Structure formats: C-alpha cells, structure tokens
Amino acid sequence: MGFLLSELTSFATVLLFGLCCFSFSSTDAYDPLDPNGNITIKWDIISWTPDGYVAVVTIYNYQQYRHIQAPGWSLGWTWAKKEVIWDMVGGQATEQGDCSRFKTTPPHCCKKKPTIIDLLPGTPYNKQYSNCCKGGVLSSWMQDPANAAASFQLSVGQAGTSNRTVKHPKNFTLMGPGPGYTCGAARVVKPTKYFSPDKRRVSQVMMTWKLTCTYSQFLAQKTPACCVSLSSFYNDTVVPCPICSCGCQNNITHPGSCVDPKSPYLASVVSAAEKNSPLVRCTRHMCPIRVHWHVKLNYREYWRVKVTVTNFDYSRNYSDWNLVIQHPNFDNLTQVFSFNSKSLTPYGTINDTAMLWGIKFYNDLLMQSGPVGNVQSELLFRKNPATFTFEKGWAFPRRISFNGDTCVMPPPDAFPYLPNAGSRQYISLLTLIMICASTFAFTYAYA
C-alpha cells in the first residue's frame, strides 16, 4: 500500500510539472525593470443610436520607458456580430471593405476585422478628437505622460442598443508599429465617470470595456536590436560588441543584407531604401544601435563616465529615444550633463536603475548613420567608500536597454581589467620636473 501511494505521488508530481511546462511559453511578457508596464485600452459607450452606439476608444501607454514610434500604432479586432462603423473622428480604418449591401450612403468600414490607425498632424479640426492626430506615436509614461495616450471616436451600427444586447469585440490586436504586443480579452468594468469643468457635477458613460496588451521582445524580433561596448581610462583595451550580436553578415546568400560605408554607390543605395526598413552598416556586430560606456575620469570623491549612442542604420531616425541603465552607483548619481534622467525603482527601495533620454529640440532625435548619427553625454557619480571599486568590472553597467529592448552585453570576463599595482609605474609631474631640472643643471655645470 505504501509503495502504491509513493508511485501515485511521483506520477502526480511529474504530471503537474508537465502541465506547468505547457502552461507557460517563452513569449510570456515580463520585464523585471517595469513589472507593471502595459498598454491599456478602454472602450466607453457614450450614447445610443437607432441601430447601435457612439463610443470613445482610448489607448493608454503605461509602460515606463517603451514608447510607440513612427509609423505608429494600429489597433484591430473582430466584431462579435455584424457591426459596421458608420463614421469615425480622430482615427480611420485602413480599409472600407465590402459595403455593397448598403444602398444609400455607405459606412466608413464594413470589414469583420477592421484595423484602425491614428490620423496625421494637420488633420482638419472637424475630424480631430482629443489626444488624436499624432501619427500613431505614443510617448512612454515616464518620458512624456502628456503624450502617452491616444483617443478616437466611432459610431457603430447593427450592434444592439442596450447594455444587454450590445457585445464587445473579440481578438484584439495591437501593432506598435511592428509585432510584439499580445492583448487579453475585453471585459466589462465599472462605467467611466467624468467631472464637469467646474468639478461640481459627475456624469458617467453607458458602458465601459477594458483590456490590456503586454509586450514581449521575443515576439517583436528574432534578434536583438542593440549591443554594448566598453572601455576605461585605466586600460588600453576597448571591448567591442560581441560578434554577431544582432545577426551576422550574409551577403553571399542574402545580397544587400548590410551596407559597406566605403561603397561608391552608398548614396544611391540609401536614397532607394524604403523608409523605416532596416539598412544597417556592415559591422562585426550587425546591430542598428551601439551603446558605448567609457569610464573616463577618477577623482577623489567622484568618478565620471561617458555614454555614447551610435546609430548604424542608414534609413531610420530614432525620435524620443531613451536608455535604461542598471548600475549599483545610480543611487549616487550627481549630474547628467546633456541628457534628461530619472530614477527607476522597480525593486522598491533599491535605486540602481536610471532612465536617460534626449533634451527636446537638442538631442532627442538620433539621426541616421553618418557623421551626426550619434548622441553622447557624461555622468558624474559620487563615490560610496563602502562599495566603490574599479576591480572585477564593478564600474561597468549590469544591463542596458535602448527604447525598451535589452542590449547584448560583452561577457564579464572580457571587461577592461584594472592593471596590477606593479605592472605599470606612474611618475608624478613634480618628480618629472625635478629630474629635468637636475639634468639641466648637471649639463650646464659640466658643459
């Protein structure tokens, strides 16, 4: 009996382990530096119409440092019944679909699975809605919360005219602008309430649905998008990005996979390239972005670092870029000279992570590859005598991400090391002057 119980227990353990393995996939989205980051979509029905309703859809980017850049977001779903979109303000469907069954004025969109995009800046006022018309660009919540939301209004027909008959859409998809986001199912929540301008009256919508979308770097791209190189004042070695960090040169089987900067046809290749498609310079690492961390100076109470971000893509600019760097000395960051900075505290009281981004109209736009395709700044840290050291790679970052994507770091055993005390002799300036003066005096006396 005891043997049988033991066998059953072992079988149950193996079965539970197998179920756990099938329950979690490698594409599950979780960012330890932004554990609560997501994009929340809220669908508010503000009024009923003879055959449906008018709704306001709002997209909130609650991600701390991941933003949606040009050409912007696109939102899709599948209608639960035979709904159509009669009209839209602040956004538009990419296709009208087959509206031949309507004999009079056709709807804005008749597709079962519509795709909605934002309008461009300069849209006429009668087509605008609050937080619209930014070309689909959404800033990250920490970088620019005022521009981290987008809204559009749509009039839906053939949808039901009460809370009992109306059905929310299914299978939401969000492109931002490429893949990477996975959206959950919409659910009915408490109706949204609004205050009047004088804050004396509260009104609420007819019905509200809400869903969240999370990001996974594994879904977004097969290879990383950036890498890190290192150097220091106390070592002549420059540690480059690991070879093939973001892929390898493969011009034999895939001609044109990278661009040689010495090519006489470079200008024609760049001008013929499609906008926002990768056109990466041929390098050992093949990354569009390289972040270089250089330990520059050592003072008595401070130490100084220079950070340089270089764009190796000939076809893409990075607007409103940002860096997230993890290093134990960020709790003593004293000054950042030409970037904006803000601390991230994903682990409660531990302050070892900072977000850096460009200054508006100065270096917030990282230009295409070329002489001006880089931005740089210097960071000044105050030393903590209890932890500060240049030994064993302590002065280099633990993790760096660019626009929310984790960069490939060199292996720790390749970090620039601190020379042994006896391996190099340093001569002070005063000693050198005294030696020169003595030599001159000796030469003059016996000349």
TrEMBL record:
Residues 1-29 form the signal peptide. Residues 226-416 form the COBRA C-terminal domain. Keywords: Glycoprotein, GPI-anchor, Lipoprotein, Membrane, Signal, Transmembrane, Transmembrane helix. The keyword Membrane applies. One of its GO terms (biological process) is cellulose microfibril organization. It is found in: Cell membrane. It holds the Pfam family COBRA. The chain crosses the membrane at residues 426-446. GO terms for cellular component: plasma membrane; side of membrane. This is COBRA-like protein. It comes from Rosa chinensis (China rose).
